Amino acid sequence: xxxxxxxxxxxxxxxxxxxxxxxxxxxxxxxxxxxxxxxxxxxxxxxxxxxxxxxxxxxxxxxxxxxxxxxxxxxxxxxxxxxxxxxxxxxxxxxxxxxxxxxxxxxxxxxxxxxxxxxxxxxxxxxxxxxxxxxxxxxxxxxxxxxxxxxxxxxxxxxxxxxxxxxxxxx
Length: 171
Description:
Elements: H1 2-18, E1 21-23, E2 26-30, E3 37-43, H2 53-63, E4 80-85, H3 90-105, E5 113-117, E6 139-144, E7 147-153, H4 160-169
Parallel strand pairs: 4-5
Antiparallel strand pairs: 1-2, 2-3, 3-5, 4-6, 6-7
Helix pairs in contact: 2-3
């Protein structure tokens, strides 16, 4: 039974990384540096819940504890967020699930969250994100009334919650 499972897993994995798959607005392609699967394009959260991305996403999302004190008694303005990240990037693998958990805690609707996955050249496939001036990933860009309020680039200065609080309240 174990051998059959291993063979089946190997074959599925081989098919998955051996080809370029296109689903919706994103592609699953092969990282030219490490050969691992990577997402490229505009995604929704469901892409992160699929093999092989689900393992690191679910582990980080489930284990992260939101600092609820950072938002206690605070009325945040309505905002949207654009998240540019890479599934091959260790910082993205850590910070993106955490940010999505924070956004869930704050009941930010999915329609107000835009997710772009980039390749090693910081390109999002068919989506031109050059106007976002992405140099490092992950980059979290916060908008209020359509205007950029600030960014968290690569990793927070204090914490995701505290940096977000400062950006959205202009402190």
